[in-house]
Amino acid sequence: MKKILLPTDFSKNSWNAISYALQLFKNETCKFYLLNTYTPIIYHVEYVLVQPAQFGMADAVRESALKQLNDFKEKIATTFKNPKHTIQTMAAFNTLIPEIKDVVEVKEIDYIVMGTKGATGAKEVLFGTNTVHVFKNVKCPIIAIPDGFDFETPHEVLFPTDYEIDYKYHHIKPILNIISLYNSRVNVLNVSYGYDLSETQKSHKKILETYFTDSDCFYHSVSNQNVPEAITKFQLRNQVNLLIMINNKRSFFENLFFKSKVNQIGFHLNVPFLVIPAKTLNKS
């Protein structure tokens, strides 16, 4: 049974991500954890020191969160009516990232599915702050869904890589799980600046090929382009439905997303984005 975490702030964007998850895994037996974290608006040091419970404010905020979670749960039940799926609601007096990390560990979550921005996210921002922090801090595969994206079957998957990763099964398993559901075609894209692959990169590529032996997988190489440009051009030529990257600190993932200002990245994500951590819980 797949265990999938669905963080929500009750925004339209988060409902869109929930809808995507329920459709992506429609044929799988799944338990979905619908999570909302809350802190009262006046939450600060003095508030904590005098014990918030005595004001009753945390209780009021919790009741509001639980009601909205239940509303979302009922909306899921009436919209999707899938007997393979069970929904558990979770309201936590905590900030988002620590709570997600705890839930991932305790519930042994397989995927987190979330929107790319929150209720107040600006359209020009590629990823909201919460999404970026989850990418950086949570050791679990994350599928980020662009604002307003309607579900598409992931027939064409784009997997850019610099072959600098010593691929392990836990890197590839989240990909294999999804592509096996839809007989997806995987397009592995290597972007270089005109240099041949090193012996280490060649070795890593061979390892990667062994994982995709039974899959419909194609290998592409482009040179003298930056990564955003290469991804954008590939997407324009092909009907890509899912972008996948491994978040390895030594790879171009870090350079692409965390060493540039968002508005300088040069492309805006218009398809779901599966981010796989280089390290997962209890694994190297």
TrEMBL record:
<dbReference type="InterPro" id="IPR014729">
    <property type="entry name" value="Rossmann-like_a/b/a_fold"/>
</dbReference>
<dbReference type="Pfam" id="PF00582">
    <property type="entry name" value="Usp"/>
</dbReference>
<feature type="domain" description="UspA">
    <location>
        <begin position="1"/>
        <end position="145"/>
    </location>
</feature>
<comment type="similarity">
    <text>Belongs to the universal stress protein A family.</text>
</comment>
<dbReference type="InterPro" id="IPR006015">
    <property type="entry name" value="Universal_stress_UspA"/>
</dbReference>
<dbReference type="InterPro" id="IPR006016">
    <property type="entry name" value="UspA"/>
</dbReference>
<protein>
    <submittedName>
        <fullName>Universal stress protein</fullName>
    </submittedName>
</protein>
